[in-house]
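Side project, low priority. Logging it here so it doesn't get lost.
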Amino acid sequence: MSDSVFSSVVQAPEDPILGVTVAYNKDQSPVKLNLGVGAYRTEEGKPLVLNVVRKAEQMLVNDQSRVKEYLPITGVVEFNKLSAKLIFGANSPAIEENRVTTVQCLSGTGSLRVGGEFLARHYHEKTIYIPTPTWGNHPKIFTLAGLSVKSYRYYDPNTQGLDFSGLLEDLGSAPSGAIVLLHACAHNPTGVDPTSDQWEQIRQLMRSKGLLPFFDSAYQGFASGNLDADAGSVRMFVADGGECLAAQSYAKNMGLYGERVGALSIVCKSADVASRVESQLKLVIRPMYSNPPIHGASIVAAILKDGDLFREWTVEVKSMADRIISMRHQLLEALQAKGKMN
């Protein structure tokens, strides 16, 4: 047999996060734990499908008028509108003035990638600053999107808290117009978030230097159990009338990990600019994946538009968040009792 034309291809290493799941699945131990990808589990270690998701999904199945036609390039219109309201607030002036364009994307990763490629094509500054540390996929996403990736100080291991002075110094030294990636809440991987007062100082500094905020909102509702509180940082930047980008994921807060449901919103100075931005986002999306899938976004839209389902969802989100917070306290206490942490 002749050699393959791909003989020179080397074996790639496993993804540092998803590779842990591969190892977990191979392990035969009956007492194993998967500490890789951040996915919520029940007390029995099983994946959880929210009750409200089950209800919404059944409603969709029972609706015989639903079809499986291609979506528009920008996705489910209702989903986009409701997603913008969820993160910016139902009474956001930016939404009321039609200054926001939102497109459905493939969860948070896809939203970041689409936003990154749009900026690489149409924004004058090609450098994005990401915190140290950050989610391992961030530098890969933005590099492949065509941006130059640099970092700013964020976490101080000595204090196990925010290196706020280092953060301000690094952003203060960034070139005017640079893009800055900000974790909206529940910073990944540290869990350390700025206080409201610190967010305000960050906002003032960034606006004074013309830095462009790009929020990654993967955990709205998961940090505090309150959807509005966890969007506070984003809304602070939108309230000043400036421009910004926000990537949303429904993987965690609705447990829709495998449905790959997300949205990218860009807040612009005017409705005219927002319309032109959307036209260019379509040109990014079309050759990438043509248009997004319909099922997961329809589940989200069904929950967000129905008052009863929405209220039930907020209760379930808070229950998950409270349990996570409680388990973290229990873990810390157990480690301290064994003398493993100070």
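Brief comment: The mean pLDDT is 95.
Revisit when time allows.
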